[in-house]
Specification:
- This protein is mainly α.
- It has one domain.
- The protein is 63% helix and 0% strand.
- It is built from 10 helices and no strands.
- Helix 1 packs parallel to helix 7.
Length: 222
């Protein structure tokens, strides 16, 4: 994130937002509603959408409970403008800790919840989908932070904005969905056993792409 903020300070900008037709703002909410209906009542023989048969991807809370919790979290996050990347950006650029208070509150709540449920495990070892290769853990998270900074918000914030009708955020969300599917089907995603056969290549290409974007999408060169 720090590198991304430096690009922003150096003039990085993807251009201003413009008003669009109201229908375009409904595209993402309608798409998500369609996926929810498919989840409740699959229409393809065999039960599409398809789920993982093992591992964390095969586990989920009951649909109604998930929907209710997500509904209230979405309202709270939208009203408070919750964003992890925005919190770091504001601290570095303006020494403003307003958004950071929400992130700190989330960390405290998650910490206490895991303690109560007996799920607290410090470090990467023993986590459901984490590996202990520190170099690629660091580089992977560096890529994530840089990408979020250049995109103007973390994944959660992009989800909330897409629900508000922001088409740019909608493209980001679709990219996350497609990217997750690609990573899990083409040897990019890591696992507790270690990084995938193409994980390192994907991280390096991603870093080069994001750095090139930050360098060339600037109004001024410093």
């Amino acid at each position: 994130m720090f590198m991304g903020v430096q690009f922003i300070k150096g003039g990085y900008n993807l251009g201003r937002n413009y008003p669009a037709y109201k229908f375009t703002g409904l595209i993402m909410p309608l798409l998500m509603l369609g996926l929810l209906l498919l989840l409740i009542r699959p229409i393809v023989p065999g039960g599409a959408p398809f789920f993982s048969e093992k591992g964390p991807g095969s586990q989920h809370a009951p649909i109604l409970i998930s929907f209710a919790i997500a509904f209230f979290i979405g309202i709270f996050a939208q009203r408070t403008q919750f964003c992890t990347m925005g919190a770091v950006r504001d601290i570095i650029l303006m020494r403003d800790f307003h958004l950071a208070s929400g992130v700190i509150g989330l960390l405290i709540f998650a910490f206490l919840s895991n303690l109560v449920l007996g799920q607290f495990k410090p470090g990467f070892a023993g986590q459901p989908i984490a590996h202990t290769n520190q170099i690629w853990n660091f580089l992977g998270m560096a890529l994530s932070g840089l990408a979020y900074a250049l995109a103007g918000g973390c994944p959660g914030r992009q989800l909330f904005l897409s629900g508000e009708g922001n088409i740019d955020a909608g493209v980001f969300v679709i990219g996350m969905i497609v990217g997750a599917g690609f990573a899990n089907n083409f040897g990019v995603a890591a696992s507790p056993a270690g990084i995938g056969p193409w994980s390192a290549f994907a991280v390096i290409v991603g870093l080069l792409f994001c750095i090139a974007t930050g360098v060339f999408m600037r109004k001024k060169i410093v």
